[in-house]
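Q: Here's a chain of 305 amino acids. Please give me its 3D structure as tokens.
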Amino acid sequence: MNEVVSFFSTTLRLATPTLLAALGIVFSERAGVVNIGTEGMMLVGALSGVIGSYVTGNVWLGTLIAIVVTVLFAAIFGFFTVVVKADQTVIGTGMNLLASGLTITVNRALFGASTSPPEIDKFVIAPIPGLSKIPVIGPIFFNHHILVYLAFLLVPIAHFVMFRTNVGLKVRSVGENPKACDTVGIRVGMTRFLSILYSGILAGIAGSFVSMGMLSFFTEGMIAGGGFIALAAVVFGNYTPRGVMFSSLVFGASNALMYRLQALATNVPSQFPLMIPYVITIVSLCIVSRRSNKPLGSGKPYIKE
């Protein structure tokens, strides 16, 4: 029973960064922008959070700094894709490469190549009083970091905003038919730009959680495809917050299974367990490819005639 409880608890924790980043991507995707640069944003957020926590001695100030830096990074992506109207895939790929090189350079310049990184303030487990003591259910759902609770709390909030508010209606309309929106006075460029900034905020929080919640410091390339898995979670979740939550849990479970298999003393090469999350990602995308609710204007820059 302890193994089962540990597995499901780990699944929720590992699903958190994917869920946070994917909830941001949902809005940018619905607005018509494919945020390929999420991987780089998470990487920048992970390092910025560590630097902020190291300098201020407070994990929340570190996270705030990560958000600010990541939003600036997202603004660059938004400028080229929305204002300059460059190809979103090319710019996103370029931003990922920039983030990879930049984080490696800054990390080595500030902390060197030491094998014993300095201590930083990091996220700690925050059990919910009373609820965490419930047998089986308590350890699984109510004994996590605060950001785990926040990520799952954001799901109904994001769903309400997306489908029950004027803001969500504008975001969805801009992604489906930007020309019609422009005709009735909705600012297409501004809506898309703000959606990108919002995805940058959540990507920064997700990166911070990876470096200061799941781990205790920054390591080069630590996101390891997490941004692309978040993109896949959005497609697998059919571009809805609730769907994203379920797909993030699937990917979280695949990662938890990967770590379980690695811990077992088997003769299976270690590369095979590492493949599990990515294989599930590919299979998931193939399954949903024919019933996708992808916005009609997704990936297409709007050029006013």
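Q: Can you summarize the key feature?
A: The beta strands are 126-127, 143-144.
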